[in-house]
Amino acid sequence: MQQEKQRFQYLWNAFNNNTATEAETRELLSLLNQEEETAIDAFMEEAAQPYLSQSATPALPTWQAIEQRLLQKEAAKAKSITKKRWLWRSAAAAAVAAAVITLLTITPRTVTLAADNADRYITLSDGSIVILQKGSALRFSKKFGQSQRSVQLTGQAYFDVARNAGKPFIVQTSKVNTTVLGTTFSVTALPNSGQVSINVTSGKVKVERGQQLLQVLAASQGLEASIEGNQFTAYTTTEEKATSWLNAELSFNNLTWQQIANRLSSRFGVTIQFATNAIATLTVSTTLSGNATLLQMLDILCAATGTTYHINGQQVVISKK
């Protein structure tokens, strides 16, 4: 019993000093919610005093839920426990539960990548490639690829999915999900449009709304479905139609190397730096193919400005020839 009391004292002090880990906070909450009388009750009653005033009681649904559960347990056991005991126990439990909720809220468990100013190229941890259209966003778990491969899309994107038969790749768009093993396809789910469209360029994808299978699409097939309701239309498409937005030309009219670098950084997810400020202020006027790779664009831009580039991982350095 003494060992249990010492453990509780440690957990309580860590909680109040904001040094408790998530696991320790959960352990403390478990101790606060235990049913039996324990040797830590006296310490708990004293420690919980700051939470007994009406003003200090957390105004959270957790408070009412824990309070009600404790009352039901005590009534079922037919124990004569004073209101004071369950009040301080539930008050302390609610305080810790509130901290757990806050901890889970402020600890980001997902990654959101947005294409704010230009199309953005993304390589996911499983090797899949996503090209986000300008104004679109992709959201996925920090544990993506470990036990599942699921992403949430807002806007429009082109996917080149790395094959993994054991872990299907799922694109979630509101109520419509697109599931694949390995293929290339585009998905459009613009905000407030009420429609989702999928165009397949290779392989096969399965399109579902909840548990309802809408269609299995193969290469050169597309589908448009309403987010609400059961309406959907399947059609024949072409790769050119599915990827037309990817091939849009990039025109630069008398822009500085720095301005162009900013657009390329956003598009390809790299950092572009310049050896000197003089290089960054050089102006360029040119048109690039929308489906050109980063290296192809750098070759053209460096040739036009008399510069060269060096790539180290995700960093590009532009210097004078």
Automatic annotation (TrEMBL):
Q: Carries keyword Transmembrane helix?
A: yes
The protein's UniProt keywords, in alphabetical order, are: Membrane, Transmembrane, Transmembrane helix
Indicate the segments forming the FecR protein domain, all copies.
Answer: 116-206
Residue ranges of domain Protein FecR C-terminal in the record: 250-318
Database matches in Gene3D superfamilies: 2.60.120.1440, 3.55.50.30
* Zinc found in the keyword field: no
Its domain of life? Bacteria
- Transmembrane stretches, start-end: 86-106
Molecular-function GO terms, alphabetical: sigma factor antagonist activity
Name of the protein: FecR family protein
